[in-house]
């Protein structure tokens, strides 16, 4: 009697571990309801623990009913676990498939108990069936094997957990099932089953927990580094993202600045909702145009930056011109009475070992050159030099004979000092720009 109590107690260790994980996943889901896969995993752990306790404690007492109840709990738990893990990566089964799997397994268990009673068949149906379900889930997620370390750990743990069902069953029960409940409870198969599920099941649960925690950290970083309106990096995220590119010695690399023309007029005339829609559409356009290695960010209210590694200024100007034309031809939500939305661009190629403040100052001056020449155009260093030369020639012709001072700088250079004093302020992430913004 004492030995039976000890065996039952030890057999409850695995279900107890699953129960703890079920409660933990339930708490995680309650705090982070944006992740429904956590609820699936929590329910799977709880059902699996309940199924194991039904077998260990003989609830219900009738053998056939116990086999059906525990089998249903196990099967639903495995399907929910596979569904939850795949749901995290957007690869979940269709629900009718899950229902069909549960119904199929339960139909076979019923047949091999009430029609052709065969314990060995039920053992193989459950163990091989669960292994196949989890193996299919792992294969559908094989892309995780090349993803982040936490995703790789999850994939290999899931694959190991799925595969272990096959050799463990073959090696511990073979082709002859033990007769009688007591013999079955003392069999190598049952002991190996409890041990493997406790160890590998706990390992899988920990891997899922680590993946969920990593997802949460990624979301926090995204909220910190991305602009919610436009979907591109915010100022902090952009500067952090290009830090590695600026430190790299490889050249060339170019920087493009894009600024919406007359944005204040859009806000004042059409309302801030229309202004937000213009910014959101522009952010989407820039994301679609960017290559994998490019970095796109919203640096100010209506000002966007694109860092182009491995791109010379001439190539960057081609891209900027294409974007300018696409913006001009795109239908933004502004009244038909207003002129179409346009944008001005500044483009520069980074000098070797040039730091960020110097690079940004040069591209900013190019943008002002584009604004000064009428907006809705692209200006690089060539256009900036040409504009500066024209201004100097104009000033020399207007200089008084007794005045040795140079004439005043053009408007788009005079404005730069004022802009420098306000540009460092973080942008309003709602898309609304103060009236001091550039026209």
List strands and helices in order, with pairings:
Layout: H1 2-11, H2 13-31, H3 36-57, H4 63-88, H5 95-115, H6 119-140, H7 149-173, H8 181-185, H9 188-225, H10 235-241, H11 243-247, E1 253-260, H12 263-270, H13 272-289, E2 295-298, E3 303-309, H14 313-329, E4 343-349, H15 356-372, E5 378-379, H16 381-398, H17 411-423
Parallel strand pairs: 4-5
Antiparallel strand pairs: 1-3, 1-4, 2-3
Report on the structure:
The structure is a single chain. With 439 residues, the chain is α+β, with helices and mostly antiparallel strands. It is 66% helix and 6% strand. It has helices at 2-11, 13-31, 36-57, 63-88, 95-115, 119-140, 149-173, 181-185, 188-225, 235-241, 243-247, 263-270, 272-289, 313-329, 356-372, 381-398, 411-423, and strands at 253-260, 295-298, 303-309, 343-349, 378-379. A five-stranded mixed beta sheet has the order 2-3-1-4-5, with helices on both faces. A hairpin with a 4-residue loop joins strand 2 (295-298) and strand 3 (303-309). Helix 2 (13-31) packs antiparallel against helix 3 (36-57) and helix 6 (119-140) packs antiparallel against helix 7. The longest helix has 38 residues, at 188-225. It is elongated.
